[in-house]
Amino acid sequence: MTTYLDFEKPIAELDTKIHELEALAATREGPSIADEVQKLRSKSARQLKDLYSDLSAWHKTQVARHPNRPHFLDYVNHLCEDYQELSGDRVFGDDNAILGGLATFKGRSVVVMGHEKGRTTESRLKHNFGMAHPEGYRKTVRLMDMAEKFNLPVLSFVDTAGAYPGKAGEERGQAEAIARSTERCLTLPVPMVALIIGEGGSGGAIAIAAANKVLMLEHSIYSVISPEGCASILYRDAVKAKDAAEAMKITGEHLLKLHIVDQVIKEPIGGAHRDPELAVKDAGKAIEKELKALLKLSPEEVKRQRRERFYAIGREGMG
């Protein structure tokens, strides 16, 4: 069952009418209404394409948060083989908001890690809605240490509103854990490719996205703070999140110009949630292409490329 967003109301109304006509046709004899249904389907498809061809930053934020978008485990299950999850930070415990382990991607052994939000109420609570505690980021450091030791590329999938902001996180050193994870990304001598699959929020995102190549899906977002958080601070009113989203330049179009991301991957019409398998497949192709190029570099060249990539952020006139 499709979950419609607020701005998709015209599409929802059309689709509801289509379902009603189909149900009516199945329960009675009489003139065929197949032609009418087909016309409505074509109209719905056109409206959906037109609507998604020019989404505002706030609408993209809503799409990035859609509950049916592919999550980390969806990407792992469809793109990787022999996935073996590795748990715990060897200091405090395990964190289910960030998962990771060893896998085979396109015939090559890799380390994969990413935020998992969960889909059902039970799993969302288990994964804390993708908001990691310090032990989650200490786990990523352990995984990246392993990647260096065994010369394995790292694939990272980012989807979080931010690191967990509660008391427990602060007591266990949230800021330090995020900083260590970011540092570990930047010092890796092996290739690292990160993909923003939904929300890329704050330090909780950059902690596993300081990669050689940072890709993002067309309707994902990447920002230093959530639009609601920005509005609360700057406008003293979270209701102005829509205005904040526009001002923050959080969409792929703007981030590409600023060299914060390297590629924006097109999504199926209507968003990744409408055709998850195609979205994951296209993302896999983009990751594979970037990884192949990076694997040709020596360890020193890998670190140099990553360093220059981040130095280039915000520079005008660079290709």
Q: What can you see in these coordinates?
A:
The chain is of the alpha/beta class and 319 residues long. The protein folds into 2 domains: 49 residues; 251 residues, Alpha-Beta Complex (2-enoyl-CoA Hydratase, Chain A, domain 1), CATH 3.90.226.10. The protein is 48% helix and 16% strand. The protein has 14 helices and 8 strands. Strands 1, 2, 3, 4, 5, 6, 7 and 8 form an 8-stranded mixed beta sheet that branches.
CATH architecture of the largest domain: Alpha-Beta Complex
- Kindly report the name of the CATH homologous superfamily of the largest domain: 2-enoyl-CoA Hydratase, Chain A, domain 1
Largest sheet: 8 strands, mixed
Low-confidence parts, pLDDT < 50 over ≥5 residues?
none
User: Mind telling me the C-alpha Rg?
Assistant: 21 Å
Number of distinct beta strands? 8
Distance, first to last CA: 43 Å
The CATH class designation of the largest domain is Alpha Beta
Tally of helical segments: 14
